[in-house]
Amino acid sequence: MWKNKVFSAINIIGLSIGMAACIVIMLFVSYEKSFDNFHSKNIYRLNEVQKFPGMVSSQKVGLSMFPMGPTMRNEFPEIKNYSRIHWMYNYPLKKSDKTVFFPAMFYVDSTFLQMFDFKLLRGNRETVLQKPNSIVLTQVSAAKLFGKEDPIGKTITHYGDDTVSYMVTGIMDNIPQNSQMQFDGLMSFSTFARPDMMNWWGGNWMDTYFELAPNTNVAEMTKKFPGYLKKHLQNDDWKDYELFLLPLKEIHAGATDIGLDYVNYQKFDKNYTNIFSIIALIVLVIACVNFMNLSTARSAERAREVGIRKSIGALRLQLSLQFIGETVLLSLIALVFAIILVELALPYVNNLSQRSLSLPLSFNNLTTLYIIGGTVLVGVISGLYPAAYLSSFQPVKVLKGSIQTGKNKGTLRNVLVVSQFASAIFLMIATIFVVRQLNFMQDKDPGFSRDQVVTLPLDGITYKKYELLRKELLTSNFVNGVTAAQDQLGSHLDQSGVHFKGDGPKRDLAVTQLVVDPGYLDLYKIKLATGRNFSKEKSAANREYIINEALAKELLKDYPKENMDWLLGKEFGYDSLGTIIGIAKDFNFNSLHNKIETMFIFNQGYSGYFSTVSVKINGAKSKDALAFIESTWKKINNDHPFTYQFLDDHFNDVYRADIQVSSIVGILAGLAIIISCLGLFGLASYSAEKKIKEVGIRKVLGASVQSIVTLLSKKFITLVLIANLIAWPIAWYTLHVWLQDYAYHVEISWWVFILAGIAAMLIALITVSFQAIKAAVSNPVKSLRTE
After folding, report:
1. What is the pLDDT of residues 711-732, one digit of tens each?
2. Are 307 and 395 in contact (CB under 8 A)?
């Protein structure tokens, strides 16, 4: 190592970078795969596929109906138990004069803690949620309300538009971070459940979980679901649904195609996790290839050593073990540097991934043993071929100097260099397209204006003061507009059953709904294709509807000769029909992963229940505007905390997984290129060293520096060119498949492949030219004098 400082440094740096990338990805993958592993029972979640008339495409949802849990438990012998969850976010609970707003409280059946293995510190798992008005708090939640006081048996009250009181019957340990269910407390479902709710078929507003008997054939069980739906749903409504089960431990990473998936903390696509693993492995393999390349390239320097050792009795196995031992030692040294790199990188990785990954460094930890074992394996694999090759030299030929070590091994080295750069170019192309797709989604005109829009959440109390809040906010020059709605753009909007009456029979449809106040379209600059906006003087009793172009096309299917203007004035809406007054141009109210669904916008007036306020502010004075909004909020809602979010930030949250993927793929691609260049630098250095006398002779005979640089560089540039030709078709096919996940995506442009190819060529040329120029400008007298 000390005699060959450059090559040792290249190997150690390359291996340490590759190992660090693998360790970080391993920690991430291990964290992702650990979700919900602490639950021991055979639990599945019930999900629906909804395919209602009027929808552009069917959709999977994580929701189910209130009666499904108990009725399926009675009718399917495979189901041992069930529990339902209904979530309440930003839920205020009051003890005496102290009010705490909890991020998430769950209404659950009494069987919840019998099915799920969350740790109960105080209370009986069987009975703690049995009685109405029972509540179980986590340790942190109990401390927020009671401090050091014993909470068991104490009463707390919901601070809202009702006066529900709860008795604390149990205390739970804090919820593990690797649980898809994150909550501050559990409340008994029997608190508000009534017998008549067993007839509430058709309404999907909860999650239902089943504990199945061991060895249940889920596929066979699923075949009986259509018959169950047909039995319980009226008319032919059962045809609008499909039911399927998803194992609890697969929900976190296997439900990315399921919408309305409200109880799924840090939801992440398992396909991306697998992609990260593959790319990290590629980076490590590239580092191993570097070692093999440099070891076989420098075989001449070890040939005489091998010959002498063999001549005094060394066996080939002994020599092989020696060379493998050297590479294992090199790998262990690289591991030390890799651990340092990991510790430096983890804060950035945690910030990017919104996880709390850490590297456990204790010898009784399984992760540490995996890392050390993997390092030894990397050393063995990296040294296996060089050891077999070096130990094969015949001592007689080596000591006579008649063997040309390294001959015929150039082909293998060339293949390995091509493989390295093909992988790096593939990752470079993939990174460019991932970033382009992300920018496309973030920059594409969604059909409405979201710049300088601040959103404020409302609840059962604050929504009643919306009109006062709106009027107060509009008194300032910092505010350009105020509006409200039942849902926020960028979220998965609810659907509603509506009726349409044209010139024929009434038609029933299920359509995405957006319930707004009269000024909504103005603030968001949603354009109309035809018709007019809502009348601001109209009351909620005078129902007016604006539909989007997608719904207009759906309604006109029965009237192919008519145009969109014909729809204006037609009866449309809920049971008490209103009229269509306008048709809005299609806009992307959801992620660009999804097609634009059919939609109607309903004017609720200023008296309706809204869950979010949108405030358009003066962008030049955003700090002043936010300060004014906060002071106004506190003046009107002094008992509620002020929380806000820019709508742009909300959409960044919608695309957070895409942002994470683009960043991680980009980083891994950069590491692959760096390691490939390190190997190329080493090979170029060795090549220049081997041709030092040839270069000297050529210079004496009048060769220019340019011609010598070309001589030393053209072989490597040719290899990179071949790598491009291999990487391009693989990248094109992979990207073609990946982009199908997006309803709206960038085109696969040929110039990106050319750009990546040219970039790889330039990087390789710069890497090789450094050594080539150094050899070309050296004094030929020195090289020729050493003959």
Report:
1. 777 888 888 899 999 999 999 9
2. yes
The 3-class SS string of 633-702 reads: HHHHCCCCCCCCEEHHHHHHHHCHHHHHHHHHHHHHHHHHHHHHHHHHHHHHHHHHHHCHHHHHHHHHCC
pLDDT, residue 265, reads 95
Token pair for 760: 């790889």
Please classify residue 726 by burial: count the beta carbons closer than 10 Å to its beta carbon, then call 0-12 exposed, 13-18 middle and 19+ buried.
middle
DSSP secondary structure, 66-101, as one string: TTHHHHHHHH-TTEEEEEEEEEEEEEEEEETTEEEE
Q: For position 465, what pLDDT does the model report?
A: 93
Which helix (DSSP H) or strand (DSSP E) does residue 339 occupy? helix 316-353
Query: For the stretch 453-489, what's the b/e string if a residue is b when 16 or more beta carbons lie within 10 angstroms of its beta carbon?
Result: bbbbbbbeebbeebeebbebbeebebbbbbbbbbbbb
* Cα dihedral 658/660/661/663 (nearest 10): 120
**Token reading at 593:** 């992963």
In angstroms, how far apart are the furthest CA atoms of the chain? 105
User: Are 73 and 221 a contacting pair, CB within 8 Å?
Assistant: no
Please name the residue that has the structure tokens 């992300």.
438
Contact present, 356 and 347 (Cβ < 8 Å): no
- Using CA atoms, how far apart are residues 151 and 440, in angstroms rounded to an integer? 52
Q: For residue range 380-423, list pLDDT tens digits in order.
A: 888 787 778 777 777 776 666 655 544 455 677 788 888 888 88
**Residue given tokens 């010598």 in the structure block:** 708
